[in-house]
Amino acid sequence: MFIDRVDIFVKAGDGGNGVVAFRREKFVPRGGPSGGDGGKGGDIIIKADRHLRTLLDFQYRHHFRAQKGENGKGNKQTGKDGTDLILKVPPGTLIEEEEEILIDLVKNEDSFLIVKGGKGGRGNARFATSVNQAPKYSEKGEKGEEKRLTLELKLIAEAGLIGEPNSGKSTLLSKVSAARPKVADYPFTTLEPTLGVVKLEEGESFVLADIPGLIEGAHKGAGLGDEFLRHIERTKVLVHLIDLAEPNPAQRYFQLRNELKLYNPLLLEKPEILVANKMDLLEAKENLKNFKKEIKKEVIPISALTGKGVKELIWKVWKEIS
Ligand SMILES: Nc1nc2c(ncn2[C@@H]2O[C@H](COP(=O)(O)OP(=O)(O)OP(=O)(O)O)[C@@H](O)[C@H]2O)c(=O)[nH]1
Ligand SMILES: [Mg+2]
């Protein structure tokens, strides 16, 4: 399953306590204060790791605590610092706290200190003064910070497939990549975005996202809503699939563009490759000429089913993103 939003709780380590101790030596009846400081609590750091593709790991575990600092010891020994905890997330993960974005971990290895461990408390050795040479108190360690966070993954696909339900997006993705999204003859087959890696000759490749079908009113939550539209906000190019076998393709095309605009007008500024799909069907062949006339844009005719025109399309997408 594709997990793109999870709530987690993180708590950094508490600082170790400072202690009260006195030197004990043979022949020295009352030694001076020797209680050491507590160690610092571990921090929690969130780091982007390109080997991860989903937030699945966070679905099973929501609570993360870093190690406490060790308490101080006698002989003025400081306790050990708690170990930092590093949480790995896929690149493209946004970290939010109460709806506010704290950081956007875009690139591999990007990292962010999310909660800081508490300072260790001071031991009584630190409190000796000329008037109080044998203090009997020490500090407690500071509490580690804690936060409730939302992690949200924006897929980093270079190209995004958009189109109405049933237009053939998943069919196309499975034709050009090893991804196997469900394909079926009814709308809203795809419920979650799927990524596929499209390999070209000469070892080049790019990531293509298949997202659920869009309908009028999607930006207000109609159909499966607009939640997944954020997955295409970062793509470099949109591949817009139209089912040419259905009536009024041009009208449907403009309606979908309008839907994108209502969600985020910047989407319309992205390069777009317009694809007429299902060209193996007679109705599609009949509709193509009119469609081209009304649209006044370059149209790439393909059949995702038979594969005709698909190779040319992929090269076109590649040219746009490279
Ligand atoms: N004849 C023909 N049928 C196609 C072609 N491409 C897809 N189909 C069929 O159209 C139906 C829908 O295909 P999907 O790939 O599931 O469509 P989708 O756009 O992913 O649909 P949603 O996930 O519901 O948005 C399936 O029955 C496919 O077999 C094509 O080029 N020619
Ligand atoms: Mg689909």
CATH-scheme architecture of the largest domain: 3-Layer(aba) Sandwich
Radius of gyration: 30 Å
Measured between the Cα atoms of the first and last residue, the distance is 30 Å
Percent in helix: 10-25%
Total individual domains:
2
CATH class of the largest domain: Alpha Beta
Number of helices: 5
Number of separate strands: 14
Largest sheet: 6 strands, mixed
Ligands bound, unique? guanosine-5'-triphosphate, magnesium ion
Q: Give the class from helix and strand content and strand pairing.
A: alpha/beta
Please tell me the overall pLDDT.
90
Specify the CATH homologous superfamily of the largest domain: P-loop containing nucleotide triphosphate hydrolases
Low-confidence stretches: none
What sort of overall outline do the alpha carbons produce when their principal axes are compared?
Answer: rod-shaped
Strand content: 15-25%
Strand order of the largest sheet: 10-11-9-12-13-14
What does this molecule look like?
With 322 residues, the protein is an alpha/beta fold. It has 2 domains: 1-154, GTP1/OBG domain (Spo0b-associated Gtp-binding Protein, Chain: A, Distorted Sandwich); 159-321, Rossmann fold. It is 16% helix and 24% strand. The strands form 3 sheets. The chain has a 6-stranded mixed sheet with strand order 10-11-9-12-13-14, sandwiched between helices. Helix 3 (249-263) links the parallel strand 12 and strand 13 (272-277). The longest helix has 15 residues, at 249-263. The two termini are 30 Å apart. Bound molecules: guanosine-5'-triphosphate and magnesium ion. Guanosine-5'-triphosphate binds at residues 163, 165-171, 183-185, 187-190, 212-213, 277-278, 280-281, 303-305.
